[in-house]
## 1
Amino acid sequence: MGVNLLGRGGLDDFAAGHDQHFITDVFHYGQIVGNKKISQPKFFLQIQLEHPVGYFLTLCYHQTFLPIHPPTIMKFDAFNRRDATWAKVGSLVGNGPFVLTKYILGDVVEVKKNPLYWNAAHVRLNGIRFFPTVDINAEERMFRNGLLHVTYTLPSLKTQAYRDSKSPYLRIIPVYGHYFYTLNVLKPPLDDPRIRQALNLAIDRQSLVDNVIRGGQKPLYALTPPSAQYQPRAQIKEDVAKAKSLLAEAGHPNGEGLPPIELLYNTSELHRATAEALQQMWHTNLGLNIQLANVAVPAWLDRRRVGDYQIVRAGWYGDFLDPSTFYELFKSNSDFYHTGWKNPKYDAAVIAAANELDPAKRMEDFQQAEAVLMDDVPLIPLYEYTTILLARPEVHGYYSNLLDMHPYNDMYLEPVETK
Amino acid sequence: MPRLFRHALFRLLEIIPVLWAVATLTFFLVRGVPGGPFDREHSQTPEAAQANMSYYGLDKPLFDQYIQYLNNLLHGDLGPSYQHPGWTVNELLAQKVPISAELGLWASLVAIVVGIGVGVLAAVRPRTWSDYVPMSIAMIGICLPTFVLGPILILVFGLKLEWVNVTGWYTASDRLLPSLVLGLFYALYIARLTRGSMLEVRTQDFVRTAYAKGNSSSRVIVIHVLRNALAPVIAYLAPTVAGLITGSFVVESIFQIPGIGRLFVESALAHEYPLLIALTVIFAAVLLICNWVADVIVATLNPKVRLD
């Protein structure tokens, strides 16, 4: 089967342009020069990069790099149309290990093994059924009832019980993503960097993950979660006394004279618990009056976009294994977090990193960017995400990895002998 | 019964302007909610955003959109789904309405049979054990919301006894727990309503007359008392049945049932304008029709109503 990657033009109107930022980044690094037929029956895809991109292979895991077959899709006149009839059962043509056989919205998505897959001999699952569950408690009950092999997640309230009982089903996977709050630096009183610093320093992140989140997450003291290649040097040193003196320096000893500050989050059990914990910490440590506001996702995004907030809940999962996946988000021209924060020094460091050939120097550029960020505090990092799920012991080949990607072609079921 | 027929027809015709009003109100109200249907955490280019808006005609003046919508509605076209590209609202409803309707009918059956049964049982010998026990259970049941009762029943019958699956809508036994959970709350309310109404009717003169004529006790209770006591129950049943067959978000979520209750909440959160309006209109239509049926039944049971 011929394989074709999409050029930029097609992607612009494709998929509602949601991954636009990502594509721009990718093609900034290089462009596809063509798919040459080198020797029968194999095809090779050649991509010429403008400069070395050490993490290029992890970039290719991203869904925007999945190959598709344009003529098949064009049969449905579908590239720039949203009604993706080409994606329905019977019309969808892919080159993966499985074929879509059933799709009932809100009920089940079923795939069966693809006998034409190039490596079909090594695919050991006959098929997979995905159940879209709205109620995560129902999902956990389905697992206990033996209806599921693997769950997508686990309610945070139940994680502790599974950990306490040392359940063989529980899997906690560290992932390359983080949970944070962003601050609107254009709105008083958070336009004062000393007050932002004070908020950042007066938090007990360890206590937050141990007592509130309770899912094996690690507290995070920098914008970027550490990885094998990169550990940010600038680390937040939590210090309530220093936070108090910063607040006093800003003219508000013990929070005097400060109006209530609003913390906005999208409605969810965990976001509420986190917000309440932070509200309590800031009140006890700094005497601040924090008001919580929770709204549904569209309103949350809308208010964030127009800057109608003071503190807002945010989170990000890395698209690929490189710190730039986080640092790009806070550049002045970024359309992501709308903190109103701009710093040419930060931009310069991130752009320098993008153009740097030497991997070690690149990481130094990121260190500089991190230092600027930690001085100005347009955001408050809280913890590194984990994926928490239940899997039956007979499920093999479900490996944990930072990008939280679990290809099904390597998974198989094998009964485990009970002793 | 020409008079009853005229009464029924007139009430039926009233439904049409009400539905139009509901569709119109919903059409404008949903657009007033902050946020749009294509907002995501990832930003999109203005061109891509514009392409989406113009694909669905959302860039046209609101009034033009409204006229277009009404025109499509008259032709039975409820529009596309924004969240699920490639699916039309008609397709989604065709998949999900029968499921919610079936669940709702089973639940209504539970509500009516258990409700009236228990109510009659309690009213036959008031202030005895056969009254106190069922009524106390009913009181507890009414206080238990479905999101508490559901998981408790699942825990016992699904996870401990393993008689039924904890979720799904595939086999006959899958119907059992959801119908029970959904119907029971209303059953217990109906039981209290039936009991109260029957106790009131029992004391009336015509009941004493019926006994004096030598009717058997069961005949008096069923023909004379129950028939006259049912009016408030039927009035209550109309909106209840409408609510039950148009889906329950909680029960459908707890039991993983792909019905319209879940669709309703999801479409509201996702700003799925066409789906949201369609579901609101359907709910209104079912409610109005149920009320109409109740009207006709009450009129049949009680000739006095027809004269109003």
## 2
Amino acid sequence: MNNPYVIETQELTKRFKQFEAVRSVSLRIFGGQITGFLGRNGAGKTTTIKMLLGITHPTSGSGTVLGHRIDIPKESVEMRKHVAYVGEDKQLYPYMTVEELIRFTKSFYTDWRPDLERQLLKRYELPPGRKIKSLSKGMRTKLALLVALARRPALLILDEPSEGLDPVSVEDLLQSLVRTASEGTAVFFSSHQIEEVERIADRISMIDQGKLVMDFSLDQFRMNYRRVILGFASQPPTAGSELFRMAGIDHVRADGRQITILSSHNAEAILEQARHCHAVSVDVQPITLREVFLEKVGADN
Amino acid sequence: MYICTSSVVHSPPVIIKLHPSAGQPLYLQLMQQIRHAIETGVLQHGDLLPGIRTLAEELVISHNTVAKAYSELEHEGLLELRHGSGAFVFATRAMKSRAEKVRSAQDRVHELVADLRSERLSEEEIHRLFEAELFYSAPVAKE
Amino acid sequence: MLWYKAWRESRTRFLFSVLAIAGLCAGLVLYNKDARAAFADKQLSYAEYIWRIVYHGGVRDIFVLSAVVLGLGGLLREREQKTAGFALALPISRWQWIVSRAAVGFAEVAVLSSLPALVLPAVSSFVHQTYPLSQALQFGLLWLVCGVLFFALGFFLSVVLAGEYVAGIVSLVSLVLYSLLVELPGMEKFLPDLYDVMSGAGMPYFRPQISSLSGPLPLALLATILLTAGAFVAITSSICARQDF
């Protein structure tokens, strides 16, 4: 498999009656990395992930996961042999015991890791004989994580994995993701817990209202993404101004005589141009992922 | 071998604290902190830093970050990566740590003062000799 | 392990049905004297009694109900329970999901259909009566084939109707409607009466005078019924393949 992308989609779209949950999403997710998939609730993360796994069928567009077409059922089944998934529904068969569920899941895969199974069972403190219906939500989540992590898949997809977990367990989860990734599994996880994603992800894809709004490496982001705050004494430049045509401008917000520009790169040149446009105060600041996220998915200007 | 849990900690010989929100790539922060540790003598020539996977799990950051930091530091000649064993600190003479300088200076001062004392110079006289030297000699360019 | 799961998920319904059918058959045999006396209009022979009450009566209706109910469940129910994501992420095709559940269901229907044959001749000897095994086996075959179709209908509804209990309710209502419809005069031209196929009532292979099956069983009809059941399963599978979860 020579495709460097573990996930690649072309204009993936999903329409439910009148509502477009996913709009022309073209993802490119690299192997050998941890990629965070950020977005608000209802932004389209879950629907996108379900389309990748063949749980939901795309309305239009196409994609491949591990080189297998997502819209061809035979290929999708083949692909799922090498993919582990933890969904947003942390519900498992209530009538099975912990042990039975593990045995059930294990039977479908050849990449099972009995050593990890034992370790995680102990670490998560899951009683093997307990029926799933009497497990707390946190323990069910851990069980769902266990059956995904006790393998060596080529790709691990998680949808809000830390939901319902206490902080110690979240830390443990992040550590497990790091370990899994360092052993060669590509990790693709969606979250709206930005701080968690910021710690371990190599790349971020951000989705809002069904559209992909950002796709970048965190290193590049930290190095180049800046908030440029400009103050003007008189009328600030209008929409047609030279300033706003500069390369690297990702987002502009105007508050009276203050203009805030989020620039993905080229901050210095933008500053220069701003001075040209008679800005009386200029300030360049680093910006956190959370702040960018809020700017981009907040009210549009 | 077993996987590190957060309660059984295999600490590197250095405390690393990274700030994901600080506007600087994590690998650069990691490099800076390791470099600083080498410069101040906390990490010394021959010390072994944990392997990429181990450090990544310990710090809960992507292994790519650790790999990039180690790789860059290896380029700078500060680390020597041994496959499977970790990374050996390589502090050359040119990069001698401040602490080592101070320590070696301290040894020499000790010897000089011992010599001067053996020639029956008083503490007061030795003190004044040093002061005069520092006050009147050409100031050394601040590093 | 898919088959095991299908079994686990239908186990309770199945065991209840086994208890109901086997229990009723045994009870009706053991208390046949009192029950026959209750038929005030005429003196029933043992064979006619068994036919009236088991193969043409309540036990048959319970069997049909059980077959339909065994068809319920499946992926739509998993969607309600929020386990569909987990299930569908397994490296299993939609077809495999369908086949495993259908196969286990067919096996369960087969067992249920054979219960009267297992119970009636054996228990009859306890009350100094005889019920020929060959009769019971032939009825069993009729029940098996028709039962499989009823199962397929419940199975089909379970895939097209969302909602935990909707499929169940619609199945039951449809069953009632069907049993009423086929009784209407003139309906036999449009709607085959499976109830009569199972009991032989009005059929050329049944002799009402001795309440027994005689003559060759309608193999062509049975084959058609089986094929229809198979067609329902195939249609169900293709519907399921297109569904979003």
